[in-house]
Amino acid sequence: MHTITRNILFLTLSTIVVASCSLQPPVPEDHFYRLPAVKLNNTGNLSNNLFVKRFVTDGLHSERPLLFSENSQPLSLKQYHYHFWVDAPPRLLQENLISALRSSGIAKTVSNYNPAKRDGHTLSGKIRRFEQVARGKENKVIIELELRLDDKQGNILFVNDYQQEQSAGSATPHDLVVAFGTGLTKIYSELLKDWQMIKTK
């Protein structure tokens, strides 16, 4: 009799445990985001070869999670959980800029930097800010880059800071990524204008 009671009690507890496990919320899925392709207006050929270096940065901007700051704590930077760039921003921006410059026709060839080649201009960059800001009622992203252009002799043609604050359609990561693409389009367009001004002087 005691054995039957124990068996019934064991089965009851097992059923409760299994039921409680089935009620646990599912583990959130990881999401990965690429930057939108940037198309630039044709500015005419300014170089035979243009080499773009991998961007440099410090700390959190070298990691893949999307970053954000709160309205109440603008100096505090945090990482999103489950939302990642497909690659670390230094590499992501390098490839995005290469594609954009190819579409502009600014050079006959645009490619990754190769230290063995010295037959063209070199573009390098540093990421200062690349994150969502003002999360809440107002949603926007901020991009701040330092971009430098050298000629084939290694002479610096210009070093400029570029910054864009771009509103996002919502606080969803997808809309934030769209806003990053819009902001980058504006920055790259400014870059081309600065280069064109040097050539026309």
In DSSP terms (H or I, runs of 4 or more residues), the helix count works out at 3
Please give the radius of gyration in angstroms.
25 Å
Helix proportion: 25-40%
Tell me the domain tally.
Answer: 1
In CATH terms, the superfamily is: ABC-type transport auxiliary lipoprotein component
Q: Rough shape?
A: elongated
The helix/strand order is HEEEEHEEEEH
Beta-strand fraction estimate: 25-35%
Number of E-state strands: 8
What is the residue-mean pLDDT, rounded to a whole number? Answer: 88
| Low-pLDDT segments | none
How far from one another are the termini? 102 Å
Largest sheet: 8 strands, mixed
CATH topology: Rossmann fold
What is the CATH domain class? Alpha Beta
